[in-house]
């Protein structure tokens, strides 16, 4: 059975490889939607009433909900690993470049480099001391994290075989060990794929600048150059959890994969602008070569 | 490496005489690569020495599909799906050198290829390194309906508001 709905600005498709009674089915959907709503009300940069939006207006110490710990810790670690390229402090830049609440999509202001993490905030055990007003953005890993949270919810309901697809970020579990064939979308032609990856009890996430783009920007902006990278068209990462696959697929735009490989257990494939690829040897896939 | 995708392949009927094994196909490819690297070295080093011999040792990575492949006919789609490794040997100005080539065939097409330098002398290490890092086949897109897929992973669909805004901007730009 399948659920399909729109949330956090994308299309969700959740396949459960088992049948549920109609009352349980409806019940579970409500729980999933509540979980997503609660998450969005904390992290969405696009909502007036979210914690993130409120934090952008006022400095001070904020108490964060329990799921924030993993996300903040991961962001902080990747921030230092990528020399500050992967940062939640990119929020103001994205907004100034036009990727704001109203989708103005016109860069109206001169972009400024984001503040350093240590100058802007201090995070420790669910307490965030915001020292400078900052519009935080968790778009590079938040969706993946939410996919994991929904996955945990299914586990609690004793559902162990499922596929959660949040607009192309996928977490797939199969108790029967049946692999899932996932097409790697050609960013230059959305009716095509450049290959097929095979995943089993893993997550695959992609990052590409092809859809959310406007003017000379897309949603991936390098805080050092204040521009969107052009040498890489798309990246894919396969990891045990979606938050990691999601975050690392963005990091691949900024630093050498070897640096990330030393720290994290994941596989990757990068599509360069000349349509050559780089991939880790164990990225299980079939690629269509010229 | 790509074993999970190696299917049993299409085993065409046997024809006598005009047959060529996948070993030879991969071997031929390795010869081309070895000639290419030697050529590369000589072009860059004004070294006119050509390889004195090219010897190949082919080992399939998986014995899974190798059974009856020895006499597949010579049509493009009849080579056994598998990943093959070959070591190409050549004689550099300093002596014997080799490099490793790994090729994955599926439905008669190369679906993956990898060159691993194994040189021992400084110049050869340099040339093989340059060659390996420049040996980058380009990929192409295939229409989604031609490929059997469960899912597609790509950039997230953009929200309606975003698409509407882009449309508006496009309209404004036209005026």
From TrEMBL, chain A:
It catalyses: L-threonyl-[protein] + FAD = FMN-L-threonyl-[protein] + AMP + H(+). Pfam families: ApbE. GO terms for molecular function: metal ion binding; transferase activity. It is an enzyme of class 2 (transferase). Keywords: FAD, Flavoprotein, Magnesium, Metal-binding, Transferase. Signal peptide: none annotated. Transmembrane segments: none annotated. SUPFAM superfamilies: ApbE-like. Its cofactor is Mg(2+). Its EC number is 2.7.1.180. This is FAD:protein FMN transferase.
